[in-house]
Amino acid sequence: MSAEYFIGIVPPEAYMERVEHFREQWMDYSIVEPHITLKAQGGLSPDLKWIERIRKVCENVRPFSIQIAEPAYFGEQVLYLSVHSEALVHLHEYIVREISPTDEQVKKYFELDDFVPHLTLAKEAFGLSKQNLVEMEKAALIKLSPFPQFKVEFIRIYERKTHADRYETFEDIYLNAGA
């Protein structure tokens, strides 16, 4: 059975549950738990040979802080919470260099120069209207604040098997606290 993979960072459990509960008020379904995408699908092949390279990257990176911030949009179709962390951007670049996706994959998945750290709240593609997203944005400012700062100690590889409708945790890889 084939599968798709991507790599993310999860917020603290209590905040993840707040975001999930918030989303449930607007839509019935989410394809994945709340996360910050670190590396999209491009170059993460089903042969899984890339995982060892990810482990080596993580051995050389210390835990770092992330600040979740106010809602923003990609166009008018995607509502997300902003994420601020220079270390996150550097880790993204490090992983992309190690995986070496094609230029087309980098462009398709908005990586490297086009990378914008974020935690997606909703998309029009999830069955919401532009007006729903505007209402959701206003509610997020109240219900999802204060926006947390937290320490990233591991990254999470997600897997969606062919014909599955949701990404699930495949493996957590810890950063090296002594790096």
Task: Give a quick summary of the entry.
The protein is of the alpha+beta class. The chain has a single domain, classed as Cyclic phosphodiesterase (Cyclic Phosphodiesterase, Chain: A, Alpha-Beta Complex).
Description:
- Helices cover 31% and strands 30% of the residues.
- The protein has helices spanning 13-24, 50-59, 86-99, 103-108, 130-143; strands at residues 3-9, 36-39, 64-74, 78-84, 118-123, 149-152, 154-161, 168-174.
- With 179 residues, the chain is of the alpha+beta class.
- It starts with a strand and ends in a 5-residue tail after the last strand.
Question: Strands, helices and their partners?
Answer:
Layout: E1 3-9, H1 13-24, E2 36-39, H2 50-59, E3 64-74, E4 78-84, H3 86-99, H4 103-108, E5 118-123, H5 130-143, E6 149-152, E7 154-161, E8 168-174
Antiparallel strand pairs: 1-2, 1-7, 3-4, 3-6, 4-5, 7-8
CATH class label: Alpha Beta
User: What Rg do the Cα atoms give?
Assistant: 16 Å
Q: What structural category characterises the helix and strand content? A: alpha+beta
Low-confidence stretches: none
At the fold tier of CATH, the topology name is Cyclic Phosphodiesterase, Chain: A
> Strand fraction band?
25-35%
Q: Helical proportion?
A: 25-40%
Q: Helix count?
A: 5
Q: Note the overall shape.
A: globular
Largest sheet: 4 strands, antiparallel
Number of domains: 1
Write down the oligomeric state: single chain
Look at the structure and give the mean pLDDT.
92
Tell me the strand order in the biggest sheet.
2-1-7-8
Distance between the termini: 36 Å
Name given to the CATH architecture: Alpha-Beta Complex
Please, what is the CATH homologous superfamily? Cyclic phosphodiesterase
